[in-house]
């Protein structure tokens, strides 16, 4: 009697672990094929699960894009909070933390985050989600910088625009990480210094 080994039973992932797996596969899909290729069906295929599993987590493509942005934002928030807590309470240190952590978070995520951010502008619901997370980030920046001068909403929006553009340029290789960080640092310092006048 020959003994044939049966395949090991597949282990069922917890809902949280399955979500993490799907997000990781989705990021890889965007990295390899671009945001246009990101569909729930394609994600199911690459993740080796059925479509209902993916639909249960995201419902729609917009839900998937929102989840990817939330995933990115959670990592960005963690890096930012840790860096602020470890920094000295000086303008130069706080401005550097904002500049360095923003650029580093985008570079850590890679070239796929600009595509996800652009796709968020494709619907009013996703644009509102993006604005909500931006407002939270801008409030944290205001809190970090307000001891050093008056921080206007217009200045914060200008800083965010510069942060996005410089980070995307660094992610695409147009400029270096250091150039992006230094230029963003200069933008932040100028914004705060204008508030001192």
TrEMBL record:
The alphabetized UniProt keywords are: DNA-binding
On the tree of life, the source organism's domain of life is Bacteria
Q: Which residues form the HTH tetR-type domain?
A: 16-76
A Pfam entry, by short name = TetR_N
Residue ranges flagged as DNA-binding region? 39-58
Which InterPro entries does this entry report, sorted A to Z? Homeodomain-like_sf (IPR009057), HTH-type_TetR-like_transc_reg (IPR050109), HTH_TetR (IPR001647)
Protein name as it appears in the record: TetR/AcrR family transcriptional regulator
